[in-house]
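Morning. Coffee machine broken again, so started the prediction first thing and wrote up yesterday's gels while waiting. Chain of 109 residues, entered below exactly as on the submission form.
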Amino acid sequence: MGGGRGGGRITDHESRGWEKELWVRTQCETFGGDRWVVAEVKDNGAGIDEAHLGRVFEPFFTTKPADRGTGLGLSISYAIVRNHGGQIACESQKGEGTVFRVMLPASET
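Came back before lunch.
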């Protein structure tokens, strides 16, 4: 199914001399006869260690020091998406960046 597509890129030039980039893409897709709105957010950061990948949506899971984060952001995102009948997934490779994909059921209105 063809659908609306959109996307963009945000670039941040850090003082360390390398660029952090964030890509966002949205589109409508059909899976198993159902219509979905899909949003992908991709970065070119350090990636997530494979040992941590399966835990990123757990409440309070973080690899940051105690004063730098609570580990609630992704678990809250997971709950919001699931409560709306959607799905959220994460793909990452260390040193290659990360992609988060959110799929929400498309409304007919």
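The chain is about 15% helix and 45% strand. Going to sketch it on the whiteboard this afternoon.
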